[in-house]
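Example protein as discussed:

>
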Amino acid sequence: MRVLFLTHRLPYAPNRGDRIRSFHMLQALQKYAKVTVASLVHDDEEASQVGRLASLATEVITARVPRRANLLRGSLKLLTTRRPLTLELLHAPALRSLVERSIASAMPDVVIAYCSSMARFAMEPPLNRTPFVLDMVDVDSAKWSALSQHAKWPKRAIYSREAVCLAEFERQAIRTAAMTLVVNEREAEVVRGLVPGAAVKVIQNGIDLDPFKPPSEPAGGAEVVFCGVLDYEPNEAAALRLARNIWPRVRRQRPDATLLLLGSRPTPAIRALPALDSSIRVTGAVPDVKPFLWQSAVAAVPLVTARGVQNKVLEALAAGLPVVISPIVAAGLPEAALPGCIVAEQDEAFASSIVQLLDAGPAARREWAAQASLDRVTWSRQLEPLHDVLLRAGQSGPPSLPRPTPRRPTESPTPSSESPTQFIQGRPAADLVRR
């Protein structure tokens, strides 16, 4: 089976939610398919990781996203079109020509469009007669709708517009796809709300247990950890809520407690927190989160806006930490993970739950986390249905519905100043220039 895997972000390193799922999907696919990865890349660091996928894909194609040009394009079209801003910000016209060259000798049997933003490539030539599977992961239009409820003007207006415009595009993509995948039943219901009767299947996220297994006895200190990409708006809001609203309540009862905000790209507001409270530490990017989890006592995930499955919860549980979570986080988790968590909504209840776990002691905390039955949600188990999904999609033939073009006829791609790159088995193609 030949599979073309379209993704908006390179599936390496698996250090953030969207990369974790796509990386493990590639690991599953390489057991039974010849895979070509066609990925957007956003910076030099991401582009430097392409060779790490050599063992998981026959070919890796990348096209650089011209960020500044896309911001200008998006700003100009924000008030004049109904094209989703997401598609403008991920505009990379070089990718289509590279895909055409790749499939010239052999068409894929099936295309996987990872996240709705990549469905446009599957819905346009040269791929529009090849069956495709859309992995929405979670429904992005619903995320923008949720974010708009907590945002201030002008973000509220921009997010509300994006929710409406992206939902229109998602309806086209769902109707055209042979199958739409999501990470939990909550997201499946959103898909059915967009397209009643949609062919949708839940394939949940999992956890790779062995790497996270604690190498020693539980930590005896009182460190609380929050982990995430810290310039992602829901994560930033959660980290600031934890530090400003919840943490002072914890410290009144546990003056010895420390707070670790662990993750890449902390915003200025987050970087300023240690100067205001010496019990708070901000790491920035780290090569590996596991040692930091092992040295902590409790994980806290007080997200107010959340879609899909929060991998940070599964990773903390696998590392032996009980987790205090908000109700919206709990609603997206596999049921098997919930016994290792405490669900708390208001700031006072969240702080009390953290203190309860800190007071319980190291052994009791480890036992609490162990109540989560994570052996039921390993990646290998969760992704077992993917093979059958792809086989059925490949046998379905060309889609019967016409594939609408998400770009309006009057719009034409703006040439990118960035040069594309193509890698074959992890090596640069000799006939392409890299700048």
